[in-house]
Amino acid sequence: MLMDVEKCYGCMACVVACSAENNVPLDFFRTWIEHLEKPDGTRIFIPKQCNHCDDPPCVPPCPTKATFITQDGLVLVNDNLCIGCGACVKACPYGARFINPVKGVADKCTFCSHRLAEGLLPACVEACPTGARVFGPLTEDNELTRIINSRPTQVLKPETGAKPMIFYLDLPSEVNR
Amino acid sequence: MVSRRTAVKGVLAAASTGVFLAGYWGTVEKTIRPTTQLYSPDRLRGAGVRYVYSSCLGCNVRCGIRVRVATVDGVEVVERIEGNPYHPYNRAISPDHQLNRFSELTYQTPVTDSLTVTGTLCARGQDGIHYVYDPYRITRPLKRAGPRGSGKWKEISWEQLVKEVVDGGVIEETGERLPGIRQIFVYGLLRDAGFDNPSDILSSLKKDVDELVAKAADKKVTKEEFEALLTSFKEKWSKILGEKGLRLEDVLIDPENPDLGTKANMLVYMRGRGQDNADTFTNRFIKAFGSVNWMRHTSACQLAFYTGNYLWSGYYDINPDFMGSKVIFMAGAAMGRIHPGATGQGALIEKAAENGLKIYYINPLAPRTAARKNIVWVPVKPGTDAAWALAVAQLLIKNGWINMAFLEAPSKKAAEKLGYPYHSNATWLVVMEENHSLYGSHLTDTMLGIGGDNKPLVKAGEEIIPYDSVDRADLEFTGKVKLASGEEVTVKTVFTVFKETVFSKTVEEWSRICGIPVQTIQEMARDFGEAAPRAATYIHRGVAQHPNGEYTVWAIRSLDILVGNFHRMGGLLARPSLTSYNSYLYNLSASGFGEPISWGPPIDRHRAEYEKTIMYYRKVKSDENPYPAKRPWYPFSPEESYTELFAGIDLAYPYPIMALILYFANPVLSANKGLKFAEVLRDTKKLPLFIGITTTINETYLYADYLVPDTTYLETGTNGVQFLYSGGMGRYIAEAWRSPAIMPLTQRINDSPDGKPRYASMWEFFIDVGKALKAPGFGEKGIPGVKDKKYDGKWFPLHSFWDYILRVFANGGTSAKDRGILPKEIPVEDVRFVEQNYPIAKFKDILPEDEWQAAAYCLARGGVFTRYEDSFNEKGFSKRSVPGTGVLLLWNEKLAKTRNSITGKKFWGGPAYVEPATYAPVGGLKSLSFAGTPLEELYPQSQYPLKLVFESGPLYTKHRSGNYYWIKSILPENFVLVNRADVAMLGVKTGDVVLVESPEGSIEAPVVVTASIAKGVVAVPYGMGRWAETLVVKPSYFTLKNGGEIAATLPDKVEIPETAVNPVKHLPPIAKKILFTHRPAEYFEKGLAVDEWRFNGVSPNPVELGDPSLDNWPMLSWLGSGQSYYSNPVKVVKTGRVRGIQPHRVVW
User: Fold this and answer.
1) Residue A7 maps to which CATH number?
2) C-alpha to C-alpha distances, B400 to B326, B404, B425, B757, nearest whole angstrom
3) What is the reported pLDDT for B1046?
4) CB-CB neighbors (< 8 A) of B1093 in chain A
5) Which of B204-213, B307-316, B921-930 shows the lowest per-residue confidence on average (mean pLDDT)?
6) Where does the 4Fe-4S ferredoxin-type domain lie (chain A) (predicted)?
7) Nearest by CB to A16, which of B99, B335, B966?
8) Cβ separation of B96 and A103 shorter than 8 Å?
9) CB contact under 8 A, A130 and B13
10) pLDDT given at position B789
11) Where are the domains of chain B?
């Protein structure tokens, strides 16, 4: 996925779309927007969520192997195996996971895998009025990979070694200080 | 380590999805593994899942939505709301088209193909699910069971509601008798008294009234002569009416002033959030009743913006086709809020971020993104926008960046030769002789004695000649001419007068007034001038809703006139055109169905001239000074006013009101100092009957006598065809269609005679009241066929909402088909889709098959839309008809001749910077020539150094979005935004609780210190501070210097039967758990508990300014009565208390 920070204007359509599409309980967020401002008053909104890392730190600690990574790179949770211990929540360097108070299992962005199965886009990508979110397989030629291959992009906390797979355009350097 | 992935098109472990939901297990220990059950096998396409394309009502923008409804445990539940890819505001995206979200799906795309494509949709639209499933909703009719505002309610039957509204009722608990509206239904009185043709009687009466008014206007008629004419008028009509046992007082509101109209005018309908077809339908009822008082909340929205535009163009809703623009001045127009809304603005922002557009964002609050430096923040002092506009105008003129050829064309003929379908009056001559009776009027051939046609004159070369006799005239001229009367007067071209205004200050001086640096103004002017005509101003409430708002709007719009960008690609546009949905085969409009004639000024005196009333003429004939009038009159205001409605009721001016029907509104909270309205609402003498039609009981409905439960937009609420507002993404024709996604959750009252289900709602209320009155246009002979069309002479019944709405869609679809927008052969699959998915299809048999198919085609797409590319002609002008008069004015002679209703002084007739001031002078203080005392005189900077505004954005919509719980999770409680520089002197930091004190009182809130607000301005993110939403929680955040008594009268608790609230009860437990999670269980289990999320935060409105020159009624704009929200002088005071604000909740 690609997040174009300069296009994001903090309308929260994606946050609510995700909450509605995935039945996210109130006050919990699978995706969220961080709100920063520069000293000159410039406002910056940065969408964040699970980065579906290529080397996810959340997978090894799981005692029941409920959390796993799929062949095409989605990091997911099998609700039937999860016992809600919270080890993965602690392990995630991005704070992307939480224990769902309704289900009692670990919860986070799934890239709307149920929609991907129907050939649709994640709800957050569809809802975004400005086109700040772009999604697609990283190994094909598409709008996403064309940007990644032609323009400089950034990731969050590259130093963790998790290999996050969400790429940002114009991510302010202050965020990764 | 995971190896490089191969592309996979979606083979996933079935158990990996997050869609399986646990059964709700309440107190079970977390360590026990939850059981899982399938919510549904296929949430998106499975059995029991259906989709409806409709239109959102989260705000007023009318985006499209696609609603997914699922059947869960036998209950239909709105599960998801997405955008409509057919709608130009939502625009279409799909996996291979995610960037450049600029276009919608081709209109002709089969609807089944559209399901794999989506439209974008903002947070409010998505959160609409909470709008429907709101425990505080009332579902059954209520009547007050105590004094007004006591919060005591009892349930009554629908039949009792209708009966008492029509024929009067008694509040048993207090013994009060309430009148019924039948006693002022003059048409009915005449008919029931035995007059065979009440309409003829009324027409004849009006004819006599018009003659009386003409005599009153005649200066040669003396006072005595007029009184004699009035006496014989009264005698004549007393006799006619007396023959059937009626008196003049039964028919006329005021026999001494028969031009005020019939007693039917004593019924007022006012609506807050209205859209079609609720608007047309309710207007139709009011017209059937014979009242002139059908009103909208426009003063609380954009009335000063409308009136300001009306002055220069003759039309009111105008904003740019920004997709065609290169440079935009976006001023007082909230990012994420103003049309085309948080959804539609996405295109604007993406275009800017892709370097396709530069936006100067002129606003005390910073834009939400800089879009790669293409959105430039220009902080400005509230209320001073005319200053930067005139500074820019100065630079455009100095640098030759104005469209001389266009401005020099004096007539339509001349302009057409240049390709323009309109022209300006820049070259027309104006009499500018001080103190002359013709001051401000255009110099005409009649005045000069060279003709008799009252044609404005221009100067061309050496001659002064009629405007339509040359192709080009002089832009600048000052000179003296000799009138036919022999007098010599000074005349100037309009452009000369305008230029004098523009150059009356230097750019540096203008800069100091508005706080924008000279260099920024220069950059703005250069960018605007060089991009013209693909440069335009995009403006709204922030610049307009001030006392001086209309002049400000005009000053800004003069820039558009100077560059000639009107009605063309990239320039200013009005609204898209529409299908003939109100009247094509069936006449569903508010006229032509047998309604009686009505006359008289509306209670709020908009579009009415005091100087044309008998009461005025009477004073003049008696040599009395007719000024001050009791309240101002607003001949230039195109729409209605909250404040003037309530002031009118309070003063019984121009006449008393008997009954108010208020729909989907909250004036007490929505207006600046709206609490003042509550004084009137509580007064049963001034307002004997108050009926509310609403989904919840808010701060205003608290005072109602009767409450009609209403349906939301996802049910039958506000169903029909929605026009789009100005700009309209440039589309030639564009309208969104709203039909039910689910059937109503309100009480099922009965079935219509032909067996259709009827649910409590606004629609069925007016139908039953109309039928009880036997008013024209209701019942068996309800809806006429349109003349010269296939149903000419035929009548159709109106017994239920379905009878009306199906025919609206038939009109729209058929007219679209006849215009070639729909294919000649309607695809059967599209019709089938609607029949399988849409609740409205159950009633398709109301229509013949061909009409149903045309309607279904448009319903399937959620509206009718034409492409951008097809919306402009070869010259780049819009295909829509030219809005307004077709003459763009830099001087309005009618305004120059209009007087301030209190002082009697004439208004200045051109765009100008005028300080915000009261309407009339206060005390012995300095005053403006045509308005009152400048606010900075009244409230010096030394006492009130800051300005209070509120912030609108993509999250909350006025005060009716407190139930958007997913949005609440993001921003649960608001605060006051303060600039860092201002807090340095105050010594406060984020989290400190402060008092924001205005001359009216103070509000208390925590502070958020930010650099993204202009120095000298404080702002409250709008939408909170509620104290009544079916339940009442006494507000503690504001104290008032005057009028605090109303707050003191609020009830401690509300008594309301559980059976009449909470349509959420029957939802599956899991749905409630997700929708409300940790909210108090009683709130959604019973709907009677207080959920603090609905009552927290603050609203700035209670302490915003009143006008001391008008008895402290809310401050308004002078010409349009727009609520003045943004000119509030305040100071901020530390309280010493601290309120924790979690950093992630600091967003607005």
Assistant:
1) 3.30.70.20
2) 19, 8, 19, 67
3) 81
4) none
5) B921-930
6) 1-29, 73-102
7) B966
8) no
9) no
10) 96
11) 142-182+263-303+588-709, 186-260, 319-572, 941-1042+1096-1145
Which chain A residues are within 8 Å of B30, Cβ to Cβ?
Answer: 84, 104
Provide the terminal-to-terminal Cα distance of chain A, rounded to the nearest Å: 22
pLDDT tens-digit readout, B633-646: 999 999 999 999 99
Q: In this predicted model, what pLDDT tens digit does every residue of B152-165 receive, in sequence order?
A: 999 999 999 999 99
Q: Which residue of B has its CA nearest to A124?
A: B120
Mean pLDDT score of chain B, rounded to an integer?
94
Please report which helix (H) or strand (E) contains residue A72, including its range. none
Pairing of strands B1017-1021, B1001-1010: unpaired
What whole-number distance in Å separates Cα of residue B283 and Cα of residue B270? 10
Q: How far is B403 from chain A (nearest CA, A)?
A: 34
Fold of B319-572: Dimethylsulfoxide Reductase; domain 2 (3.40.228)
Q: Give the nearest chain A residue to B970 (CA atoms).
A: A27
The CATH code that applies to domain B142-182+263-303+588-709 is 3.40.50.740
Please give the C-alpha separations between residue B539 and each of B333, B343, B543, B545, in angstroms, as whole numbers: 5, 18, 7, 11
Domain count, chain A: 1
AA identity, residue B396: L
Q: Which domain, by its residues, includes A82?
A: 2-176
pLDDT at B46 over 80: no
A123 contact residues in B (CB cutoff 8 A): 82
* Single-letter code of the amino acid located at B246: L
C-alpha neighbours within 13 Å on the C-beta side of residue A118: 17
> What is this structure's pTM?
0.96
pLDDT (tens digit per residue) in B69-124: 998 778 889 999 999 999 999 999 999 999 999 999 999 999 999 999 999 999 99
Q: Which residues of A touch B377 (CB under 8 A)?
A: 41-42
Q: Is the ipTM of this complex over 0.90?
A: yes
The band of B591, judged by pLDDT with boundaries at 50, 70 and 90, is very high
Whole-number pLDDT of residue B1087: 85
In B676-803, beta strands by DSSP E: 689-694, 706-709, 720-723, 734-738, 748-751, 757-759, 779-784, 795-798
